[in-house]
């Protein structure tokens, strides 16, 4: 089992939770300072952190520094059995080890350049006594937020695109090494996007994508990719009352979606359908 689950550290956790809900993800774990949202095509973890001055810049955090900077994104995955995962990853040639973290047992993977990320055993809400299980397409308990109030109407809109795919954007100085790491943990290399963008794309068997992009400094970004044409996606975002600003990308297909509280998520059209 392998599922994409990046972790976004934020001081505006409720605002980000409401935004993910409005964009079509359902809350499957809610532990006050830690929430998990599922699109059916990958998950996103939200971790509450103290306000800081780093929000919005490209993240350079790894599993070893906790990814706790405000606004940072940490590469992450869900797995079923960490012992099997570590054994198979080591056998394929990538460094992996069992790890005990403050949030529980995990597995740590280390790329050749020292970049690290975690793969956590999946939590089954049905057997997790600490999880209140708010159910799909809700942000769970918390302060009232305009996006929370409108999310039900948004998700029932006939113009709403299908569920988004969660995409982790791995920027690295060593693209070939990152590609091997992803193959060694069980991700499958996909053909390039038709428009030629997106770097090397890998599919996690149980949901979500990872794209490897060249970069001077290792870092991670988060994107939600919708199966829609750019114009249709922009129309739906506007009708849903979401503030969407153009973002770098081909032919106006990418947008930064903002909330009144300052939370932002990158979305783009042309989503993966597999």
From TrEMBL:
- In what ranges is there compositional bias, type Polar residues? 147-158
List every stretch annotated Disordered: 45-74, 122-164
Listed Low complexity bias regions: 122-146
Q: What is this protein called?
A: VOC family protein
Recorded source organism is Arthrobacter silviterrae
């Amino acid at each position: 089992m392998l599922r994409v689950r990046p972790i976004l550290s934020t001081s505006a956790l409720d605002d980000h939770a409401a935004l993910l809900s409005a964009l079509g993800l359902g809350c499957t774990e809610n532990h006050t300072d830690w929430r998990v949202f599922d699109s059916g095509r990958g998950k996103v973890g939200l971790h509450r952190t103290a306000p800081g001055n780093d929000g919005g810049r490209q993240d350079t955090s790894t599993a070893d520094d906790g990814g706790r900077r405000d606004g940072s994104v940490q590469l992450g995955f869900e797995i079923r059995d960490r012992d099997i995962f570590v054994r198979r990853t080591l056998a394929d040639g990538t460094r992996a080890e069992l790890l005990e973290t403050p949030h529980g047992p995990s597995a740590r993977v280390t790329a050749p350049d020292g970049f690290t990320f975690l793969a956590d055993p999946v939590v089954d809400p049905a057997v997790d006594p600490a999880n209140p299980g708010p159910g799909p397409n809700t942000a769970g308990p918390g302060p009232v937020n305009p996006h929370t109030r409108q999310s039900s109407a948004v998700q029932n809109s006939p113009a709403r695109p299908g569920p988004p795919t969660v995409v982790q954007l791995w920027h690295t100085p060593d693209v070939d090494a990152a590609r091997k790491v992803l193959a060694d943990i069980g991700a499958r290399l996909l053909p390039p996007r038709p428009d030629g963008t997106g770097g090397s794309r890998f599919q996690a068997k149980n949901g979500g994508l990872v794209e490897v992009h060249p970069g001077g400094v290792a870092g991670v970004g988060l994107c939600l990719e919708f199966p829609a044409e750019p114009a249709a996606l922009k129309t739906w975002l506007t009708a849903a009352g979401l503030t969407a600003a153009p973002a770098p990308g081909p032919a106006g297909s990418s947008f930064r979606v903002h909330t009144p509280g300052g939370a932002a998520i990158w979305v783009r059209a042309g989503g993966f359908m597999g």
